[in-house]
Every structure is written in C-alpha cells, then in structure tokens.
Specification:
The chain is of the alpha+beta class. 36% of the residues lie in helices and 22% in strands. It has a 5-stranded mixed beta sheet with strand order 5-4-8-3-9, sandwiched between helices.
Length: 312
C-alpha cells in the first residue's frame, strides 16, 4: 500500500510539475517484522517512520511519504517539515468478513464466538464497544496478505512462537482496501459516529527537510489546503494529550465553508472508558481548534485513561 501511495504522489508531481520522480523503496523495521506487535519497535512511529526520517535528514532522500496516522503527534523532529498533504482519501474504517459470516451475525451475537483481527488499539477499543463479546486478536501484515489469511483460515503467528486465530473478520482502513483493489470485500463501512478514525487517517504526508526550500516549493504544488488544515487540527490534539503509541486516541475534522468541526475521543483498550469532545471554529485557525478540543478532553479525564494504557 505504501508503494501505491508513493506512486500516486509521483504521478501528481509529474502531472503538475512535469518532472521525473525516482521512487526509492525503503524497507523499515515494521515491514520486516510482520509478526510481532509494534510497541517494542516504538509503535508505528518507530517501526515505519523513524528510519525513513533519518534518511531524509542525512540527505539520502529528498522527501518521504508517510501515512499521517503513523506519524507520532506528541513529538517533533527538528529539521523536518510536512511539505505537502494531497487531498484526503476516505478516512473511515471497514469490516471485512470471511465466507459464511454476516454483519447481522456479529450484531445479533454481540460478537460472541467470533474473532476479529486488528493491530490497532483504537480499532480494538471501538470493536469491543460495538460488539462487547467479540474476541480481538493481534493481526499484522500488508492489506492483501491479511485478507488472504482471513480467507484461507490461517493462524496469525506471534513473535513468541505462538499463534492466534483464525480470524472471522478484520477491521481495516477503507482507503487501504481501495488502494490494493479489495474495496469489493468491504462488508460494512463504519460511520464516523460508530468508529471515529485515527488522527490523520486517509491523509498522506510528504515530509522533507525544513531548509530544503527547493523541494518544499516543488511539493507545494500538490498540497491540498483542506487536508493540510485538517492534519494540523487533528495532530494538535495528539500534541496536547501527549498520547503514546498504545493510546486509543481518535480524531477527525471536516471543513464546511469557513468553519471547521473537530471531534476527538480517548478510550481504554477494553472500550469501557470513553470520553469525547467536539467543537467548531474558524477553518483558518486549525491548531487553535485542536488545542481547545485536546484541553476539553484533558478536563474530562483523558490523561488518566492515557496513563493507564502506557506500557509499564
């Protein structure tokens, strides 16, 4: 999926700027380890982002493409800046089912007797809220690989040598399924109200050196102001909350005219503790809105929930 996203960035640059783009495939720790949990690698930020950032800072790459939801929001990387965010892809999550299972089956049973696979603590928390008796199992791999394992009833291998599964259902990003040609496998698309997306979900961020003005100028041609403002608002929530990679934090913003609306939530992984905040404000002041929402969540007790989920 990352290569598909990068190819789309290259296509846009070629179309707008008329320049040739060299795509460099960069295999990260998260790509190599398709079994273990991401937490020991520093979460998604450590597993998928840190090594690529080092290459940009070292001048080995002019720019790097990241899924914004994989970029830590509670820390800054001196010397780097988001140079462009193309138009946002659909931000919603989707349910993929194995043969013989229906959405009605899950709803009627409240998930009892079913195993649902995901590696995201946010999706796990929301899944337990929607289907209280579901068994959530650790599930890793590329999007098409995960669907293949679901269909073939394969067990998910674990880093300790054990295995879990097989899964009856998966929760995945709709945009990811679309990029690998598997949109037809979506059995149910969760609404924003059912499952608030991860901060930045559906947004691709192009990161480059802050002082590389030529590269920044080139990428500015494919920057979408709406996606960029939404990215700033949502990531400001992460900054205020100081959330770590094991924090089930969600956030989504939208713009209508000159007004932006931002909703964010914090859950515990069991899905039992849940707080949410939603506010609207001027679309040209996204970070201010993000701070307001983040501070409201803190007032409602978000810090305690985040601390409880912090790795020991």
């Amino acid at each position: 999926m990352a290569l598909a996203q990068t190819a789309e960035i290259a296509r846009r640059l070629t179309a707008v700027r008329g320049i040739d783009v060299e795509i460099v495939k960069f295999e990260t720790t998260g790509d190599v380890d398709q079994i273990g949990k991401l937490l020991p690698h520093g979460g998604k930020g450590g597993a998928f982002v840190a090594e690529i950032r080092k290459a940009v800072l070292a001048g080995e790459l002019q720019a790097a493409m990241h899924s914004l939801k994989d970029m830590p929001g509670n820390e800054e990387t001196p010397g780097l800046v988001i140079g462009a965010t193309p138009p946002r892809d659909p931000p919603t999550d989707a349910l993929v089912l194995r043969a013989g299972v229906s959405v009605d089956d899950l709803r009627r049973s409240r998930g009892k007797g079913f195993k649902i696979g995901t590696n995201a603590v946010r999706r796990a928390a929301y899944a337990r809220r929607l289907f209280p008796q579901i068994e959530v199992i650790h599930y890793r791999g590329a999007a098409d690989t995960r669907v293949r394992k679901l269909d073939q009833r394969e067990m998910q291998q674990l880093a300790d040598g054990g295995a879990v599964g097989p899964a009856d259902a998966l929760i995945m990003a709709r945009s990811g399924l679309e990029r690998v040609g598997l949109a037809g496998r979506i059995a149910h698309e969760f609404t924003i109200a059912e499952m608030l997306p991860a901060v930045g979900q559906g947004i691709v961020a192009v990161e480059c050196a802050a002082q590389d003005w030529q590269t920044r100028r080139i990428f500015s041609a494919i920057d979408d102001p709406t996606a960029h403002r939404c990215a700033e608002a949502e990531r400001e929530v992460l900054w205020v909350l100081n959330g770590h990679c094991n924090s089930p934090i969600a956030g989504f913003s939208s713009i209508a005219g000159t007004e932006m609306t931002l909703t964010a939530s914090v859950l515990d992984e069991a899905g039992e503790l849940f707080i949410e905040a939603s506010r609207s404000g001027p679309a040209d002041r996204p970070r201010e809105l993000g701070r307001r929402v983040g501070l409201e969540l803190l007032d409602k007790g978000a810090a305690d929930i985040i601390e409880r989920s912090r790795p020991m």
